[in-house]
Each structure stands twice: as C-alpha cells, then as structure tokens.
Amino acid sequence: MSQLLGVRRASVTECLEVLEREGSIRSSRGLVTIANAQLLQDAACNCFGVIEREYRRQLAAAWF
User: Fold this and answer.
1) In the chain, where are the structural domains located?
2) Contact 32, 16 (CB under 8 A)
3) Per-residue model confidence as pLDDT tens digits over 13-48
4) What gap in Å lies between CA 30 and CA 1, rounded to an integer?
5) 41 near 49, Cβ under 8 Å?
6) Which end of the chain is more exposed for a tag (fewer CB within 10 A), N or C?
7) Is the pTM of this model over 0.85?
C-alpha cells in the first residue's frame, strides 16, 4: 500500500491505526477490512465520491 501511495510504510501504519481506533476499519498483516463504510466516508470528506467514481470507472474499463 505504501508503494501504491508513494509514502513511507510507517505513515500507512499510523493512518491505519487511527482509522482502526475510530472503528472505520479492521486491519491485520496484509489485510484491511472496512468495518463501517459511513465512518470511512465521513473521514474522507468530499474526496470519497471522486475516488469512488474513478475506481468504478477503472473497474469498468478493465472488463473490456
């Protein structure tokens, strides 16, 4: 995940710990599970919709 985001692994770990404490996600080595999508969406601000649309667009393009 850190390579994908272009950040240090420690930074990813810190962010995951915050999201896990808030109850948004559950994480274990190599696996991140969304525990509460609404909390995660609230933490992402307006960016969530933009990211979700792009994700769906990329998925659709992969099927062709």
Assistant:
1) 2-62
2) yes
3) 999 999 999 999 999 988 999 999 999 888 888 888
4) 9
5) no
6) C
7) no
